[in-house]
């Protein structure tokens, strides 16, 4: 052992040289990943898309991630040299700048954030939480179920979106099972839930088979509060439907909008003749 330790400290020994080379390479890629993570945090916090139509450095269509790295390279010689030596050569080598790497980093960051939120909720001073949940189709026409947790931590109230889950059914039992599995997977006790809020759809608000009723069976303390915004919207829509004057008014405004918006010349005349800062808008159910 003493002989081996002595040889290990000898810089002329091959093992020592290989270890030094390995340490330098490890430190080099640590510095690369620090810059990659900084760019990812900047883009993800702002909800900006990462990829473009091309994945080539130097292209104006390479997306925000590569574009941000190119901007950083203008002022950072380290990352500029890294891109030139590993990405712009005829046969690119490992660079840790590909979508495979940053998608894995984002997944790790997401899991860490969820872990932090769960830790805050399971804190002895917090413990209790409420649930908000709704689903909507995304651009690829897949139904995504959003789960939001509301809790109080160190005197402040937080609402955190903790998951988007692809779903294939809208029945109350199916959605409740999804919710229960999510809570169990992340170490949250259903008994500590003190509130639940959904829209007024029967599968969510139903008194027998709705999600709120199924959750109430497991936890009597989980009080259900209908979404106030959705309730107000429904009341507003139903109210104006029975008023003939309002229906006619919005119908006329919609016809005026269609008439002027169909022609750029008419729209220009409208703006010039009215001389006001207001503009026509298309009919909206919510508005």
Automatic annotation (TrEMBL):
Domain DUF4371: 17-210
Highest taxon in the source lineage: Eukaryota
PANTHER family recorded: PTHR45749, ZINC FINGER MYM-TYPE PROTEIN 1-LIKE
Protein's name in the database: DUF4371 domain-containing protein
């Amino acid at each position: 052992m003493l002989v081996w330790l002595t040889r290990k400290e000898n810089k002329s020994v091959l093992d020592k040289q290989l270890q030094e080379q390995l340490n330098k390479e490890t430190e080099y890629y640590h510095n690369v990943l620090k810059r990659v993570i900084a760019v990812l945090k900047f883009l993800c916090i702002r909800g900006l898309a990462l990829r473009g139509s091309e994945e080539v450095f130097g292209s104006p269509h390479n997306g925000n991630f590569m574009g941000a790295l190119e901007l950083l390279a203008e002022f950072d010689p380290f990352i500029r040299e890294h891109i030139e030596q590993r990405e712009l050569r005829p046969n690119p080598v490992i660079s840790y700048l590909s979508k495979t790497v940053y998608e894995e980093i984002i997944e790790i960051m997401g899991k860490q954030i969820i872990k932090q939120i769960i830790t805050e909720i399971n804190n002895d001073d917090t413990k209790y939480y409420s649930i908000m949940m709704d689903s909507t189709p995304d651009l690829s026409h897949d139904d995504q179920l959003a789960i939001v947790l509301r809790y109080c931590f160190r005197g402040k109230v937080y609402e955190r979106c903790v998951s988007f889950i692809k779903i294939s059914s809208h029945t109350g039992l199916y959605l409740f099972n999804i919710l229960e599995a999510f809570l169990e997977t992340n170490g949250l006790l259903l008994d500590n839930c003190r509130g639940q809020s959904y829209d007024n759809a029967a599968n969510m608000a139903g008194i027998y088979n709705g999600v709120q009723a199924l959750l109430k069976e497991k936890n009597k303390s989980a009080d259900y509060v209908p979404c106030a915004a959705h309730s107000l919207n429904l009341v507003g829509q139903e109210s104006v439907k029975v008023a003939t004057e309002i229906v006619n008014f919005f119908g006329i405004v919609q016809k005026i909008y269609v008439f002027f918006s169909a022609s750029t010349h008419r729209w220009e005349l409208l703006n010039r003749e009215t001389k006001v800062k207001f503009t026509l808008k298309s009919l909206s159910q919510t508005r």
